[in-house]
């Protein structure tokens, strides 16, 4: 049926396939068709012939032999005009012979989502599902030889359908009624595992490795696992509070510090190694503390103040680090003035004291009223409490004074004053003086201490509501009208009788009314309504003030497990409630330091008593029963055929008497058998015609009548004589996760989950953090059937309701008073002190006037988003541009909401340009100002992309689910401006913070920070951005800022600073090196030449000793004569000259002989060689001595005392020498 119809048809098919495959590179799924029922009453084919056999000639019905029915399915592209021939592009499928003329699949009809292999055809595909399709379903008769198998002779019926279907679990049921047969079936398209989307082309495979840490939701979207973030969840979320500029992490919860930083959050710099008394702001600094100096801050600059070495009143002066001098008073000496010479010379005793010298110095004998080493201390005469009868003692110089009560007098208030002298009694017989008082004897009708009160008690009209007053002795009586009672007729007739209060509340009568004292769980006029405790929570909308003030902070905490709430139902006026940290199955036991332990009820264990002890271990149920764990108990779910507490009793299926018409029941395992009588047939002996009916075979089995018995052909997965026993239970694959118990049979199951898990397969962890159990901004960490509160700074306890007292460590010095606050403290400093710990000595200064108020010297106060301080009459404030403050508009004519009030003198007005971040925001406005806000002259704006040396951008990405409703961008910006770190950063320069919605991310807010007046210092704006990020990363009580999940910082990359010193030094050093190299080369070459000359001299000397002396012929006689005279003058001029006689007499004789041979007469010259210390080379010529001089420096000759034997150059002109020949001596 599916053969090709031509080349054009094949080309169109190829084009469709290419279109499908190019749409997506990866996709997978399958098309599923499930038959429900088939009806072919006559057992005919589509052409009218019988499937098998012949027609009956009488009723024209086909013979009893039924059709052997099977189905074929063709799935192809959507066709407007459907052709039943051609290729099935999307796929084909078929079944085996699944029935006769008429049959049905009951399980598929009753529960279409159950797995049933009978009548099911699955066509897988590996392309993007195109949604539109054409489906051809055909019923065929298996050829039994009665018909030819060619063409469509064996076709029973054909159904053609063209529709659209999206992937999903739900099935579409289709009823087809044809001319020959009708059948009902259902279809659906499902994506394979890890494929999602309307076309099954979205691939999402969960992973937890180096390439990603995520799971997939039902739409195929990636969801990062806890502790990971990013597109592919490859970026670890560092430890909360970790400074991301100075710390990194490769796994969630880590905080690994970069070089130069330390601390759990990498926010503490490392000082320079060896730094003793110094601190750092950046790594490797050593900024000395007060009074310390030196490279490592190890030198004490105030040795005098630290050690106070000078004694006996000596004045210490710091001279150098760790050095000092003592200026001693008269009479003392020594390095520390410890030596007493004449101690009393300087009159050290004050106030008239007498000085006496002693070996250790002096002693002062003080007059009365003075004490101390130098009589400088005034004696406190009031220390002995001399004033009696409650008098107040005032210490004076050498005495005291008592301020007595009016009835006492005297120096020590011991004399009783006669009060009757002042006649205090008005209407009395007499006045009697008493000790410490007096007594008046009053006339009749008068009373009081002074007899000034009339005893006519009715004079003041005490009776109310028209009551008549009657005077009695020392009292009165009211005669009340009808309907009133009480001492003064103030109570209406008892409105509490009968008691109108419900739920056991006590009734109290009031004037014209009554009051019901309700218990803590009820409210209303008559205590008839169940109290909603959440209505008492004043938190309404998100605002700057509300996010920082948590009402539960005001609840007094008794211990780690109990808190006290005000109530009218107890005598003490409080109601103690449990923090409920141990859950419903445990009792909290308080431990020191905010800790606790849980005492569990029987059947439970774990830190929070959250784990139910498994009573199904070891398994108590028998015969395949399933054990369900309870609380200190268990329950067995028995399989079919068994019952009892432990599934150890066989169920008697005959107890219901299923056999009819006298049949005898035989009990079997999970079944019964009826032995029928009198030709009755059927499973229950109910029919005389057939053994089969619709209820004979269970679970879709097909019944066949075999005369005296029947046989059931069961579907896949079922066995038994009536198909009543599942072959493989659906629980065999352990579908229940996380310890859940599977209960089921056949193709259905149910998971009974352990506490803390939920879902069809117990795969989802139940959220124990809903509703939020943590107070005061604590973060709830959900566990399996437990939770843990990670408290914000300043709070502790299992549910973060304990406010930590920061004053316990006594941080305030110099007698100041510590006031505990949330995660901080406030020191109320004495006069002359200031600073966070009152550690700064500011002395006495002028007060400041600011905004019409006077502030003392050294005091601090808040001015909108800035902090101000008074310093000797000058007000110094931080420079944060606060902008117009957001506020809540009036509601129904009432005043502005107290959670966001405006400063005094301003009112909340509407503003049409507020940007809403989490709707609704219509209730927000801004506080009016008398003067228009100053214009902003800056290019540093959000979403502008502008960056410079003083501009930085911060992107805050929020979790929308955690952002409170009614939050505006202006609220977020106000939160940033009011951060304490912003005030610190704006101490010296103006800080401008602007915010706007991000153009690229709807869940983000762009923040621009402009650090104006920074003089081009690029580092300051980077430090400011880092400080803001660090403040946001730490846990706080701001509801809005707790929703921040990611922070991005952008600053301008700082180029390296141009420093001319480094290149200049490099040039200098380079020149020096070149010069050194040139000198070394020159010196090396010089030394080499000297060594060559010395070597040549030595060779020449040897040659002169061995070669006969030859006198040169007369050549250049003029020059030689001049040279000889010049050289001899040089030798004769010094008073002392030397002649080298080192050669010996033999050498001299040899030279004379040689000269004689040359024809020279030297009568008066004794030939000796003049030594020039290696500076000459002697060359013997024929007829004379020629001395040649080299360019090397000449060493001075070694001269000896004058000798008459030295005839060199003596009387040279008178020598008998030839005119043509002269001797040369150099």
**C-alpha termini separation:** 135 Å
Helix content: 10-25%
Helical/strand content category: mainly beta
Q: Unreliable stretches, pLDDT < 50, 5 or more residues? A: 1-7, 14-25, 536-557, 892-899, 1102-1226
The number of helical segments is: 10
Strand content: 25-35%
Mean of all residue-level pLDDT scores: 76
Extended strand count: 92
Largest sheet: 5 strands, antiparallel
* Radius of gyration of CA atoms, rounded to a whole number: 59 Å
- Shape label: extended
Describe this structure in words.
The chain has 1226 residues and is mainly beta. 11% of the residues lie in helices and 30% in strands. The protein contains ten helices and 92 strands. Strands 1, 4, 5, 8 and 9 form a five-stranded antiparallel β-sheet that branches. A four-stranded antiparallel β-sheet has the order 3-2-6-7, with no helix packed on it. The longest helix has 46 residues, at 1061-1106. It starts with 6 loop residues before the first helix and ends in a 37-residue tail after the last strand.
